[in-house]
Amino acid sequence: MWGVLPIALHGVLETLDPLTTTFFRLSLAAVLITPYLLVRRRLPNRGKLRSPRLFFKLLAAGLLLSGNYGLYIFGLERTSPEAAQVMIQIAPMLLLLAGVFLFKEPFSRTQWLGFLAFVSGLVLFFNHHLGDIFIDLNDYGLGLLIILSAAICWTGYAIMQKILLQEFTSEETMLAIYWLGTLLFLPFCDFSILDQLTGTQWALLAFCGLNTIIAYGSFAEALVHIEASRVSATIAVTPLLTVGIVQFIPIAGVTVEPLGVISVLGALLVVSGSITTAVARKAH
């Protein structure tokens, strides 16, 4: 789901603007998950929301995740599905580092080696675009920086989610956050261009909304069956799936990154560094 998401979003962005697209992603997820939780009697406890402390924590988490969704798609609009998917891998890496500095979680020497491989991989993958950021900032370089901002927002959200799970279930927080994001993006939507969407784009837009529920649902179900470190290691392969699809399957309108040996090596280092950093926690 996460591997094909930026490709589907790219298809929608040919007609729809980023903010309207993000509104539909969040609103569809909210509309679908609400009756499900209502039937199962798992809606958020309104008594908890009366607590200003909990309310503002939930609000902060919602704003951060909405920021992640919005910034990611703005960055994707300026770069490519491959670049966006590789760059956003910074998010889980930042979360691991936040665990070290904020929650005093252990970080072994092997994990630091994995982190070094990850950073080296990013530099190698974007070797032909480094000048776009550090020398002459152009639209592509700006897109990468926007995706970096999206990764920082996601890290902040994940930290808040970790704190909120002491009071709420994950379903309660996600429902509240989806509706908050829906209301947040609604004033910025341009519904006048919806009639310009093709049938394929409507299908892609629906898929993007369903993707949110299916991907996170699969993620939660995976945690029931295997260890979190193994789930993280599996998810780290996501960029390779995106790169593989874009490179080997011709898709109209999708920008293909010019991958040389150095860029391919960089992508492999990003993935192997992520996997090493995630799995090596057991070895500490």
Strand content: under 5%
State the order of secondary-structure elements, H for helix, E for strand.
HHHHHHHHHHHHHH
Tally of structural domains: 1
State the end-to-end CA separation: 32 Å
Kindly state the percentage of residues in helix.
over 70%
Oligomeric form of this entry?
A: single chain
What is the number of beta strands? 0
Contiguous runs where pLDDT drops below 50 for at least 5 residues? none
Structural class based on helices, strands and sheet pairing = mainly alpha
Sketch the major β-sheet: none
Net shape: globular
CA radius of gyration is: 19 Å
Mean pLDDT across all amino acids = 86
Determine the number of helices (DSSP H or I, runs of at least 4 residues): 14
What does this structure look like?
The chain is mainly alpha-helical and 284 residues long. The chain has one domain (5-283). 74% of the residues lie in helices and 0% in strands. The two termini are 32 Å apart.
Name the features.
14 helices, about 280 residues, about 75% helix, mainly alpha
Layout: helices, strands, pairs:
Elements: H1 5-12, H2 18-39, H3 46-49, H4 52-78, H5 81-87, H6 90-101, H7 109-125, H8 130-134, H9 139-164, H10 170-185, H11 199-225, H12 228-235, H13 238-248, H14 261-279
Helix pairs in contact: 1-11, 2-10, 2-11, 4-9, 4-10, 5-13, 6-9, 7-14, 12-14
Task: Write a short abstract of this structure.
This protein is 74% helix and 0% strand. With 284 residues, the chain is mostly helical. The protein has one domain (5-283).
